[in-house]
Specification:
The protein is mainly β. It is 5% helix and 39% strand.
Amino acid sequence: MPLLAKADEVRDGANVLQVRGGAMSTKMVYGNDCNLMVAVRAAGYHSNPHRHDAEQLNYVLDGEVWVFVAGEAFLMKKGDFSRIPRNALHWAWNRSEKSCTIVEAHAPACDPLIRANAVGLFREGESPDLSTAVETIRGGESPDELEARVFGASV
C-alpha cells in the first residue's frame, strides 16, 4: 500500500447505506486518522438515516443533493460545502434526474474495512492503525416527518 493511489487503482465500491431507491458508487482512500471518499449518487438515491462518531465535510463536484442533518435540510449544488457534526443523525436524497458527485472527508476515519475496495495509503512497511476508526450506525429514526415538513405531503 503506497502513499499514492492512481485513479485506476481505486476501484468503485458498493454502497452500504442505500435503502429507498437509486444507487451510489464510491471510491475511498484512508489513512490512520481520516478517510476521503468520492461518492456518485444516482438520480433517486436516498440513504438510510445514520450517524458516526466522525466529523464529515462534503463538497459537491457535480449535480445537486438534499442533505438532512439533525432536523435541518438544505439543498447542496455544485461548488457547495457542508459539515456534518460528530454523531449527528444525517442522510441524503438526490431528488434530481441526474447523478450527483460529492467528495466526503471523515475524521476520524469511518471504518474502511466495511467499504468494498477502500485503499489504504501507507508506506511500505508502515502498519495501518485503525484503532480510532468509527462505525456507522444505521437507522433508528424515520426521515419521513422532516422530509414531509420540507417537501410537503407529496413525499
